[in-house]
Amino acid sequence: MTPSLRSLRPAAAVLLAASVALTISACASSEGGVGGAGSTISAEEDYAGLPEGMVGLPQNPSGEPQLYWLQDASQIGITLWGSSSCPPIVESLTQTSDNAFEATLQEIPAKPCTRDLVPHTTVFATPKSTTPSSDVTIVLDGTSLTLPAER
C-alpha cells in the first residue's frame, strides 16, 4: 500500500523544520558559543584605556601587548598600545585550536596620527571550547603571546 501525499505532509514539515534549525545553528556566531578550530570571534567591546583594575605604563613602559582574563574568564581582553588618534584595534580572533587564536588587526586609517603611547582594549567572549585553567596562545602580527592560565 502506497502512502498518500496527505499522510506524508506532517513528516515532510517536521523534516523541513529540523533542516532549517540545523542550518541556522550552523550559521550562528561563535561568540560565547562552542567555538573550535576555524571559528571567528568578533569583539564584544572596544574602548580606550585599560580594563578596570589593571595597571599600565609603570609595569609596561615598552608598550607591549597585554592579555587579560576578564569577568571570571568569560572574556579575554587584549590591550594594545599606540596613538590615541589612530589606536591599534584587534578586529577579530580566529580559533586555531581550543586554546590558540590568530588575531586580526583593523587597518589603521591613512591620516596623520598623534605620537603618544596610550592603551586601547578589545574584549572577546571566551569560547566554551577554551580552557581558562590552561595557557592560551594568541598570535598577533606574527608574534606569539601567552595568556597565562587563570589561577
Describe this structure in words.
With 151 residues, the chain is of the alpha+beta class. Helix content is 15%, strand content 34%. The radius of gyration is 21 Å and the shape is globular.
Topology record:
Blueprint (H helix, E strand, L loop, with lengths): L4 H23 L12 E3 L2 E4 L17 E5 L4 E8 L7 E8 L2 E6 L12 E8 L10 E5 L2 E5 L4
Parallel strand pairs: 6-8
Antiparallel strand pairs: 1-5, 2-7, 3-4, 4-7, 5-6, 8-9
Keywords: Signal
Protein name: LppP/LprE lipoprotein
Short description:
By secondary structure, the protein is of the alpha+beta class.
Note the main attributes of this structure.
alpha+beta, 1 helix, about 150 residues, four-stranded antiparallel β-sheet, five-stranded mixed β-sheet
CA radius of gyration is 21 Å
How many domains is the backbone divided into?
A: 1
- The percentage of residues in β strands lies in 25-35%
Helix and strand element order:
HEEEEEEEEE
Shape: globular
Mean pLDDT: 81
Number of extended strands: 9
Q: Name the poorly predicted regions.
A: 7-31
Largest sheet: 5 strands, mixed
How many helices? The count is 1
Helix content: 10-25%
Structural class: alpha+beta
Distance between the termini: 67 Å
Q: Give me the side-by-side strand order of the main sheet.
A: 1-5-6-8-9
Signal peptide: 1-28
Keywords: Signal
Protein name: LppP/LprE lipoprotein
Organism: Microterricola gilva
